[in-house]
Amino acid sequence: MSPSEPSLDDKGLPQMVRPSFSQFQDIPIPDGAKMNMDRTLILGENDSWIGRLVIDSQSPKTKLFDFFKYRTGQFGWREITSVRSNTSVLSYQKKDRIMTIQIQSKSIIGTRIDITMSPKGAPNDRNNFSTMPINPSSLRPVEIQ
Fold first, then answer.
1. Which of 1, 68, 75, 77 is the most exposed place for a label (fewest CB within 10 A)?
2. Residues forming a β-bridge with 55
3. CB atoms within 10 A of CB 90
4. Tell me: the pLDDT tens digits for 116-136?
5. Rounded distance, CA 24 to CA 28, Å?
6. What angle do CA 21, 111, 76 make, to 5 degrees?
7. Residue 115 bridge partners (DSSP)
């Protein structure tokens, strides 16, 4: 069977593949959470994955903020900053990766958690354009056709 073909159950019918959090062993996952497959994009695996993991939960936003604030350090992450607000944000660093957790109430019921994992940029990278000085006189409007 090729990877593009669906797996079959014991009756020969296509089997529904359920998303699993088992590959995310380097971050805490709240009980009862469900992966939002439409919004999730993961590259890599184990403790070197990057991308965006989107989780839907029935837990209140305040409880989830406390969960991540307490549990993430137990996975070896060092907190950079946290802001509790309408959209709460927690940022962490572990080795050469940065993790940002955004927690917000969904429009109907529940809470959405966006976990973004990215590689840490080199602080002294000469090709990092964000640290290059810009001469305002060299700026000019760009015409879009």
1. 1
2. 35, 113
3. 21
4. 999 988 665 555 555 555 555
5. 8
6. 45
7. 53, 101
**Per-residue pLDDT tens digits for 80-110:** 999 999 999 999 999 999 999 999 999 888 9
Task: For residues 73 and 5, give the distance between their C-alpha atoms in angstroms, rounded to a whole number.
Answer: 40
- How far apart CA 30 and CA 136 sit, in angstroms, is 48
Q: What's the token pair of residue 70?
A: 């307490």
CA 108 to each of CA 11, 64, 111, 113: distance values in angstroms, whole numbers, following the listed order: 37, 17, 9, 15
What is the rounded distance in angstroms from the CA atom of residue 40 to the CA atom of residue 35? 8
What are 65's two structure tokens? 């903020």
Residue the block writes with tokens 């602080």: 123
pTM, two decimals, is 0.71
* CATH of the domain spanning 34-121: 3.30.310.80
Quote the tokens at residue 117.
Answer: 């994992």
- Termini Cα distance of the chain: 48
Residue given tokens 């837990």 in the structure block:
59
Q: What are phi and psi of 9, to 5 degrees?
A: -85, -175
What is the pLDDT averaged over residues 61-78? Answer: 96
